[in-house]
Specification:
Elements lengths: L1 H12 L6 H12 L4 E4 L6 H12 L3 E5 L6 H5 E5 L6 E5 L7 E5 L6 H5 L2 H6 L1 E4 L2 E4 L5 E6 L12 H4 L4 E3 L6 H10 L15 H12 L5 H16 L3 E3 L3 H17 L7 H12 L4 E2 L1 H5 L4 H11 L7
Parallel strand pairs: 1-8, 1-9, 2-5, 5-8
Antiparallel strand pairs: 3-4, 6-7, 10-11
Helix pairs in contact: 1-2, 2-11, 9-11, 10-11, 10-14, 11-12, 12-14
């Protein structure tokens, strides 16, 4: 299976050049059955990354461009009366057609439309007019947002940010990668040449294997001490919650699986801690005014807690 994962990563990296670590984080989060928030400036490949991942994994992919006029029913679906039969019919929304749903520029729609994703992300279902409809399995939301040109945007509330397993920033490519990007796109779009490496059934099997990864008590205790360390920091008003600690554990197990192991180590926890927790903590006003970032606060927490011996 390690060879298959390497092939998946290699195929996606044909399009997302020079960002192997970001691609691996996205695949890891998806295998951990989590949702992904891509938070960065325009033009760095956020949407392309989501499209490429869906094609390579062989999953049903849908995209919805969030604008102020998008309604919750566009996501969940709606009921209507058939004028010919008089019967009520359900018209499914975009969420019911997707294994991977790209919520593009999620911060540019209304709060009520953003919240329409909450049940889908947390429970894998939508409820319309009292009836519940299950979503496809797997179901992953990959949302993008940027904070350039903030007029008309709606910041995601903390309760919804907490539904995302990871928040990832893509960043600009280095010099050599930028040249490669320019060269590869002279005559065609590399996305069109991507090959499907796996399919839905194998993705589900890999996700089940992630659940079976062993996490010893010493590693669970390490995660707990890290979570508690964030709650005790002077610069942090709201630290990592129990749900956040569970997210760290899920992501660490997936990290171990992607690395070819059936057990998680303290290093797996350290590798995923910041990307899982940076959007889950709230800094004090004093810390924000002093220029402290969530990443810095988490780095201090990591330094303050001794890791157990390798397992």
């Amino acid at each position: 299976m390690r060879e298959r994962i390497a092939k998946i990563l290699g195929e996606v990296s044909r399009v997302i050049v020079g960002k192997d670590d970001v691609v691996e984080t996205l695949l890891t989060a998806l295998l951990a059955d989590g949702h992904i928030l891509l938070d960065d400036v325009p033009g760095v490949g956020k949407t392309t990354m989501a499209v490429a991942l869906g094609r390579v994994l062989g999953l049903d992919y849908r995209r919805i461009q969030f604008t102020p006029d998008v309604l919750p029913s566009d996501i969940t679906g709606f009921s209507m009366i058939n004028r010919d039969t008089g019967a009520t019919e359900f018209k499914p929304g975009v969420a019911l057609a997707a294994n991977i749903l790209l919520a593009d520029e999620i911060n540019r729609t209304s709060s009520k439309t953003q919240s329409a994703l909450l049940e889908a992300m947390e429970e894998g279902q939508v409820t319309v007019d009292g009836a519940t409809y299950p979503l496809k399995d797997p179901f992953t939301v990959i949302a993008t947002q940027n904070h350039v040109g903030t007029a008309g945007t709606q910041l995601l509330p903390y309760a919804q940010l907490d539904r995302f397993l990871v928040r990832v920033s893509v960043g600009y490519p280095d010099f050599a990668s930028q040249v490669d990007i320019l060269r590869d796109r002279q005559r065609s779009n590399p996305v069109d040449a991507l090959e499907q490496v796996t399919d839905r059934d194998e993705v589900l099997a890999m996700r089940d294997a992630v659940r079976g990864v062993t996490v010893k008590d010493s590693v669970l205790e390490y995660i707990t001490r890290l979570a508690m360390a964030t709650r005790e920091r002077e610069s942090v008003e709201l630290g990592v919650s129990p749900r956040g600690a569970l997210a760290v554990c899920r992501m660490a197990k997936a990290r171990a699986y992607v690395s070819g192991r059936d057990y998680a180590t303290p290093q797996d926890v350290r590798d995923v801690f910041t990307v899982v927790c940076a959007h889950r903590i709230i800094l004090t006003q004093k810390a924000r005014l002093a220029g402290v970032t969530a990443e810095q606060a988490l780095a201090e927490a990591l330094d303050s807690v001794s890791a157990p011996d390798a397992v």
